[in-house]
Design goal:
The complex is a heterodimer of chains A (241) and B (325). Chain A has 241 residues and is an alpha/beta fold. Chain A has a domain of 38 residues. Chain A contains 10 helices and 10 strands. In chain A, strand 1 and strand 2 form a beta hairpin. With 325 residues, chain B is mainly α. Chain B has one domain. Chain B is 77% helix and 1% strand. Chain B contains 16 helices and 2 strands. A two-stranded antiparallel ribbon of chain B has the order 1-2. In chain B, helix 5 packs antiparallel against helix 11. The two termini of chain B are 22 Å apart. Classes of the chains: A alpha/beta (241), B mainly alpha (325). The interface between A and B is medium-sized, with 33 and 20 residues.
């Protein structure tokens, strides 16, 4: 579904992403991990059309979409969320999600119905009428997911939707992601919370200094020497054992 | 139907009163004030389409006003054509100018966009005031009065109803922007452009469309104003004061609300009329008093009721509903 071929992105002299290649097939749930500044979010920005890559190709269903604007890529079925959530603060939660639903629907009425359904899926029904800016951070993350889901993506990119959540909220959003995946959605998930990633992802890509240093199943990743050195640390491996 | 009207009671009352006044009142001063309230409100509504609903705050909308005013005035003064044709030509020219300004709004954000719109209106001012052979330069153009609807030579009552029809039309356009697909998408762009893009909204195209539509509507008002007042002075129609006035009425009334432009217009137009009547006898010194009033009004609104008069009305209504629930 999505193929990256040696994608690079530089900012001045800094190389944020260096020749990253990866393959996502329909039905995959791919995790991307790595320390802060590893280039994870930059990679999302390249895939979703916010940055034009300086090298390489981004193929969506075999078609090179590098350089296309974000809205066009969304229409092709790829939607992303933002690590720093970007709710439409002065609009209600319902309107936020409804605007997402307008991506596939011409009529506002139909989009409202769709939004109600998505809001229920994401457990935001009680807040549907509230202005988005009044939501606590945990629910804002949910809103971010709900709004993206309402665009009816085939491939959903989640950028740290679990960061800053309490254990109950965390369990809830993991459950939500699992359910979406079980229903056939393809996902790429950036996350720092390794325990969650181990439970969710089928495959994990590890970025470090903008490069892929490892790729494999969660079990393989935790045994990889370079990943342990660069990111996980000895303690994690010991805790896992 | 009832649901559609809920929350629109204020607008309904306003338009009903505006429609009734010309039936009861024949006093020219009163009718003149009503016509100006409706026209200035319509201008702010036109500005609101870009500034309020799309978040593209322009301080150079007098450019489009002047284009509309000059198009019709020149066409009827020089070529004896109907101002309605001038209105159409003004709209076409304003659409062209709006596309340019709209494109700028994609490159420049916030104050830089506002500054570039001011510059644009000032360039037109220079052209209009220097191109003596065609525009008569700084002398301005008197608009010939030829009685009849086709030539817009109308009496006060007819003008009042024409202004009312225009106001109702512009009100309807704003309501459309509140409830339609494109309106919601614009709201998304206004709130957060990156997030809107992520949801499949072509933010740049929508901004250009909003600014262009706003320009065309402003131009229509410019034409009507010139025909009503009967004289086009480049230093007035392309002035920054005027651009600020369009924005001010909308901000005081309530940014991005459908009735707000007229609420702001009632306050500012009435104040201005009162001041003109009160201070006209006095010598200089008070000539610029309206600028002070603009400033004070703006500070008070932004400090105490940033959601504008329409927002205050909504708050009072909510309180009343709670108290009587």
């Amino acid at each position: 579904m999505l193929t990256l071929e040696r994608v690079s992105k530089h900012f001045g002299g800094l190389t944020a992403v260096r020749e990253v290649s990866l393959e996502v097939r329909a039905g995959d749930l791919l995790g991307i991990i790595g320390p802060n500044g590893a280039g994870k979010t930059t990679l999302f920005n390249v895939i979703a059309g916010y940055y034009r890559p300086d090298g390489g190709r981004v193929l969506l269903d075999g078609r090179d979409v590098a350089g296309q604007p974000p809205h066009a890529i969304c229409r092709l079925g790829l939607t992303r969320t933002f690590q720093i959530v970007k709710p439409f603060g002065n609009l209600s939660v319902g309107d936020n999600v409804m605007i997402g639903a307008l991506n596939r629907l011409r009529s506002v009425r139909a989009a409202r119905v769709e939004a109600e359904r998505v809001i229920e899926t994401c457990g935001l029904t009680a807040q549907a009428g509230a202005p988005a800016k009044t939501l606590p951070v945990g629910l804002r993350k949910r809103l971010e997911v709900a709004r993206a889901l309402a665009t009816r993506p085939r491939l959903l990119l989640l950028d740290e939707v679990m960061a800053g959540l309490n254990p109950a909220e965390l369990a809830g959003i993991i459950e939500l992601i699992r359910r979406l995946h079980a229903d056939g959605l393809t996902l790429i998930v950036i996350e720092h919370i390794m325990a969650a990633m181990m439970r969710l992802a089928q495959r994990i890509v590890v970025l470090h200094h903008g490069e892929t240093i490892a790729e494999g199943t969660p079990a393989e990743i935790t045994r990889d020497r370079r990943v342990v050195d660069a990111y996980l640390g000895e303690e994690f491996v010991l805790a896992q054992a | 139907m009832a649901a559609a009207l809920r929350g629109r009671a204020g607008a309904l009352a306003f338009f009903a009163v505006a429609a009734a006044v010309p039936l009861a009142v024949r006093d020219q001063f009163f009718l003149d004030t009503l016509i100006l309230i409706l026209l200035w409100g319509a201008l702010s509504a036109a500005w609101n389409v870009a500034g309020g609903y799309a978040g593209q705050v322009s301080l150079g909308h007098s450019a489009f006003f002047g284009i509309g005013a000059y198009s019709a005035a020149l066409l009827s003064a020089r070529y004896g054509q109907s101002p309605w044709i001038g209105m159409l030509i003004g709209m076409v020219l304003s659409v062209g100018a709006g596309l340019i300004i709209g494109y700028l709004s994609n490159r420049l954000r916030g104050p830089y966009f506002a500054l570039s719109t001011i510059a644009f209106s000032q360039v037109l001012l220079i052209v209009a005031s220097r191109w003596r052979g065609f525009t008569a330069g700084s002398e301005g153009i008197p608009v010939p009065f030829r009685p009849g609807f086709a030539t817009l030579g109308l009496g006060h009552v007819a003008w009042a109803y024409l202004a009312l029809a225009l106001a109702a039309l512009f009100y309807g356009i704003q309501v459309y922007l509140e409830r339609s697909r494109v309106g919601y998408q614009l709201a998304g762009v206004r709130e957060d452009e990156d997030a809107a893009e992520a949801l499949g909204i072509p933010s740049r195209r929508l901004k250009v469309i909003a600014v262009t539509a706003s320009a065309a509507l402003t131009s229509v008002c410019g034409t009507l104003w010139a025909q009503y007042v009967g004289f086009v002075d480049p230093f007035y129609v392309f002035s920054v004061d005027l651009s600020i006035r369009f924005a001010l009425n909308a901000i005081i009334g309530g940014l991005g609300t459908a009735l707000g432009p007229w609420l702001g217009s009632i306050l500012i137009t009435a104040l201005e009329t009162y001041l003109r009547a009160t201070f006209s006898g006095m010598k200089t010194g008070f000539a610029g008093i309206y600028l002070v009033i603009y400033g004070v009004a703006l500070i008070l609104v932004v400090r105490f009721v940033p959601e504008g008069l329409a927002g205050v009305a909504a708050r009072l209504r909510a309180r009343w509903t709670r108290a009587h629930a």
